[in-house]
Amino acid sequence: MCVENALCLGLLVNLVGCPQRRREHGRPCRTAAGQLSATSSAGTRGQASVYLGEHLYLKSQAALKVRHTVLTEEEQTVFLQEAQTLVRLSHPHIVRVLDFALQDGMPFLVMEYAAHGTLRQRHPKGTKLPLDLILPYVQQVASALQYTHDQRLIHRDVKPENLLLSSHDQVLLSDFGLVMHAPQTLASGSTELMEPLLAGTTPYLAPEQLRGKAQPASDQYALGVVIYEWLCGKPPFQGPFLEVAVQHVSAPPPSLREQVPDLSAAIEEVVLRALAKEPEQRFTRVQDFATALAYASQQAVSPRLTPVLAPKHGVETGQRPPSMPDLPRGNSHPPLH
To answer: Thinking of the domain 119-326, which architecture would CATH place it in?
Structure first.
């Protein structure tokens, strides 16, 4: 398989490598920009290599992501359809997909290069973040997810490793759960096969997604887990794969306020509502979740202050915001891809 020269795939990207070898052999050489653990939906273990390159027409840096897994014919068809959809996505907080290809059944994506790495790298595991830092992150991610849902797509893999930072430190949502790296579910694979493949993803998977029935509310649940982790330094459920999966399905999350005593009850209520076991018990939209979190934070700082951000379209309609218990629940969207 030719990876050293992406032109052989019909991709408009020239890989960046060692200048000496390029001069000697007249071709670019590959440089691994990183390794991302993931799994194809075929159930085989794999690694995704990411190469730094330059887009030939845009004259800008780009990332070439190569999944070292061969897709079935059916999966190739799905990958091409979903990749075509991703290329059309345009949002300030979503990594742009510039090009894509298949070679010998292996998928390639050319994406916008995020210069400042991931939020996981910026805030390693165990790090507790202040609320005034969390809120801007949440607003940007929720805006990207809401746009995605409005396009009738589901991300399926929201976690700090997939939240990138641009050169201006803006959050960029990346690595949509395409067939090229869609995780197995409890409904479609053995636990022995799934455990090594979902090691980095299981802490963020909603109960219905573990059952193979992902929906927009599944992304809200994952974002809720990320916020929970940022607040107290660890996700709600930890342990071996199967133990964590069972807890997602049946166990209530540990109290946030017991771990963060100065956290307001309203903020905890908002986060735990996003982590409800049943999708219809969560917020109707992920944007409603982000707005409710901002509202609860504002009230915690200044309870008498008239809220600027009101849950569910308060800013847009001019209506007085409803009380927290009256916020809409459930998922009103029709079935998505």
So the answer is: Orthogonal Bundle (1.10)
